[in-house]
Design goal:
four-stranded parallel sheet, 410 residues, alpha/beta, 44% helix, Rossmann fold, Alpha-Beta Plaits
Length: 410
């Protein structure tokens, strides 16, 4: 099905946006990943939008919109509502262009995004616990102060700007038959759909949402929108998707896949491990789709948009450690020992001989211990994988140690 001429955004709009923003936006790499292709049994190409100056694709639409403002609109200033990446894109380019900027962000916005937005010269107002509440406040301020509201996704100029990355992908890898695009409010998905389907009508565009915020999938299926309250991919945490993006998505018959929170975490860790690139939750959603829906992509030439890289360092550290636990590379075991000299030394020798590394040791003599003459020791260990954990437990048992794995390595 070819894009309809009745759609609010056309290929000519995307081309015009590309010419307009040229030179001020990074032409980010679109590279073939040999390792991910082997892992997923398909040809994987990655579009590194996390390498934009503000680490997100949002710069594209924001700059396109700002460049189309009148002189009067620029002098009065702009306001935007965003959980972070749109805020930084608007703040950075408005600052370059000398346009006063106010950004309203939900209270849960990661500090790194707040700090970076303020660093570009914008005034940041934290308001509300949802994007909807932040949006309402931003519209109120816009009316009060006569600011121009720069919508993060429900605007034809924003959508056209986002679509420019799909043009770049297909110029680098024209043989792609599938594009996998994260979905928040729908602007990126809509823009990429218009651009890609206009250039290559038979290409399949697949959106990706978190199971906690499946608003686009629900709207497409005619269901009542029900979303959660938290997600590792705050860029996807949108309840009220754009009506304009929705109309484009419906017209182009796009499928939207859902991915679990744990899979998004796994995808973030996989991209660091394999590609040595840092993405935020939304940025890794495309790889999460390949992880959770492998059969859907086998044998295809798949372009995946890594749409952003703004992630709090503490969250990233937790994700990496949790992934080590998930893979069985970091485990905790509880071992009962006789409370006699040399028992701990014997235990750690068996552990070391089995190829595990002791990270931490905790003694327990008082709570829940079987006998006053025994002690419990909890060891945190570095191991190779789940198979190694199984072998380690068997080795401990063969030496007379009753060892119990704490938590799950599954």
């Amino acid at each position: 099905m070819n894009p309809s001429t009745d759609l609010p955004v056309k290929l000519s709009d995307v081309h015009a946006a590309r010419d307009r923003i040229a030179g001020a936006i990074e032409h980010t790499p679109c590279l073939h990943s040999k390792t991910l292709s082997r892992i997923f049994d398909c040809e994987v190409w990655l579009k590194f939008e996390n390498l934009q100056f503000t680490a997100s694709f949002k710069e594209r639409g924001a700059l396109n919109k700002l460049l189309l403002l009148t002189a009067d609109e620029k002098s009065r200033g702009v306001i935007a509502m965003s959980a972070g990446n749109h805020a930084q894109g608007v703040a950075y380019h408005a600052g370059r262009l000398g346009i006063p900027t106010t950004i309203v962000m939900p209270a849960y916005t990661p500090f790194v995004k707040v700090r970076n937005t303020e660093g570009h010269g914008a005034t940041v107002i934290l308001h509300g616990t949802t994007l909807a509440e932040a949006s309402l406040h931003a519209h109120q301020l816009a009316a009060q102060h006569h600011y121009t509201f720069v919508h993060p996704f429900d605007d034809p100029h924003i959508i056209a700007g986002q679509g420019t990355l799909a043009l770049e992908m297909l110029e680098t890898a024209p043989h792609l038959d599938t594009l996998v695009v994260p979905v928040g409010g729908g602007g990126l998905l809509a823009g990429c759909s218009v651009a890609a389907r206009s250039v290559k009508p038979n290409i399949e565009i697949i959106g990706v949402e978190s199971t906690t915020f499946p608003a686009m999938a629900q709207r497409l299926q005619g269901q009542e929108v029900r979303v959660g309250s938290e997600t590792i991919a705050e860029g996807l945490a949108v309840r009220d998707i754009g009506e304009m993006p929705l109309s484009i998505v419906r017209a182009l018959v796009i499928d939207v896949l859902l991915v679990d929170e744990s899979t998004i975490e796994e995808a973030i860790a996989l991209l660091i491990d394999v590609e040595k690139t840092v993405t935020e939750g939304a940025g890794a959603a495309g790889i999460a789709a390949l992880l959770q829906h492998r059969a859907r992509f086998v044998g295809k030439a798949v372009g995946v948009v890594l749409c952003g890289g703004n992630i709090d360092s503490r969250i990233l550290a937790s994700i990496l450690m949790r992934n080590l636990v998930r893979e069985g590379r970091l485990v905790r075991i509880r071992v009962r020992l006789p409370d006699v000299a040399g028992a701990l030394a014997k235990l750690t020798k068996v552990v070391g001989d089995a190829g595990a590394n002791v990270v931490d040791v905790e003694h327990q003599r008082l709570f829940g211990v079987f006998s006053v003459k025994s002690t419990e020791v909890e060891l945190t260990l570095e191991t190779r994988d789940r198979k190694h954990v199984t072998e380690l437990l068997a080795e401990l048992e063969s030496h007379g140690f009753a060892a119990h794995l704490l938590g799950s390595a599954e």
